[in-house]
# Entry
Amino acid sequence: MYSQGFAAGASAYARVGVQTGVMGASPHRLIVLLYQGARQSIAQARMYLQQNNIGTRSAAVSKAMNIIQSGLQAALNKEAGGEIAQRLDALYSYMTSRLFEANAQQDEAMFVEVDNLLATLEEAWVGIEPEVAKMAATTV
# Structure
């Protein structure tokens, strides 16, 4: 479902300023970090919305959108991932659109909606980690 070219995702994640061990992360772990980074940025956007801090809210929203587009969406391998990858691609596009709307309309409910979507995907991704580790161990 995700392409082997995770360098773009790692680069996008590093560019948005999240401090972690991205370069040493496995492809599976990198996706988890991308979900976490996007969710953290959305949490910051919500906080700045409540504080009526427009500039930093917009920066946090841009950061979340960048992680989703340049990290998660760009890493999708639509050919190998088939229908699941196609649906994730559409969902990521929807999320970035909603984040843009949430920022423009100053609508916290939209931020919550996108965060909940990301949380669900993150939970599922973390849930398959044992199977991914098992598959990696058998292919080495």
User: Anything to note?
Assistant: The domain at 7-139 is CATH 1.20.120.340 (Four Helix Bundle (Hemerythrin (Met), subunit A)).
